[in-house]
Specification:
2 domains, 134 residues, 2 helices, ATP Synthase, domain 1, binds adenosine-5'-triphosphate, five-stranded mixed β-sheet, Single alpha-helices involved in coiled-coils or other helix-helix interfaces, five-stranded antiparallel β-sheet, alpha+beta
């Protein structure tokens, strides 16, 4: 079976390098399923899990948005932050979620702090979701 090279990279360095039969990701325009030979594209991602499907197992990587670049034999994800399920500290994510919820309750909707808290909440919920899949 043909495979894809997969790299997930952040400003701090690579988070995942490997091969896969398929990669799925949530682009802002919708769900993306990438198999070897896919047409080239670049798409912005939502705060979500990138799923790397390998023989018999799926690795989940939490990404805080960023971009996916698809080429026929390679998928590169560039994100401000990304964590493998096994690297996520559940207590930290839980604390971030609670902090964000408190900020949301204490600020009004068009406040910049409200918008920041919404993003922080989405990152935390995504990490909790990905960590629960390890
Ligand atoms: P926090 O408020 O806990 O810092 P955050 O969403 O503001 O969360 P980011 O700015 O997205 O954090 O990430 C900062 C760095 O910390 C990145 O390297 C990211 O991978 C890492 N990180 C954030 N939360 C966690 C977590 N729960 N477990 C492991 N690493 C984390």
């Amino acid at each position: 079976m043909k495979t894809l090279e997969v790299s997930v990279v952040t400003p701090d360095g690579p988070v995942f390098e490997g091969t896969a039969n398929m990669v799925s990701a949530k682009a802002k325009s919708g769900e993306l399923g990438v198999m070897p030979g896919h047409i080239p594209l670049v798409a912005p991602l939502t705060i979500s899990a990138v799923r790397v499907h390998q023989d018999g197992r799926t690795q989940y990587v939490a990404v805080s948005g960023g971009f996916i670049e698809v080429r026929p034999e390679k998928v590169t994800v560039l994100a401000q932050s990304a964590e493998l399920a096994s690297e996520i500290e559940m207590e930290r994510a839980q604390a971030a979620k609670e902090r964000a919820e408190r900020r949301l309750a204490a600020t009004s909707q068009n406040d910049i702090d409200h918008q920041r808290a919404e993003l922080a909440l989405r990152r935390a919920v995504n990490r909790i979701d990905v960590a629960s899949r390890r």
